[in-house]
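ARCHIVE RECORD
Type: protein–small molecule complex
Small molecule: zinc ion
Source of inputs: curated submission
Record status: active
Notes field left blank by submitter.
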Amino acid sequence: MIPFREQGCDYCREKWIYRSDQPGFIGEADGSRFYRCALCRSYWELGFDYPSVVDRQRVLAMLGTGRV
Ligand SMILES: [Zn+2]
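STRUCTURE (tokenized, with ligand):
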């Protein structure tokens, strides 16, 4: 697993630490909320565990192609 400090960028990691406005919320499914950073374009998933960067395929599978 990739350490949190190596995921996304400084800007979107601050979201989880300082509650900034990045990454932006894009949708939720099956109890997980998905976000995308406007700077580094990383997708984030916040489920029952700590937030982590996920790949686009995961987001497409969860939210559907029309919303990503
Ligand atoms: Zn970022």
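CURATOR ANNOTATION: The helical segments are 10-18, 56-63.
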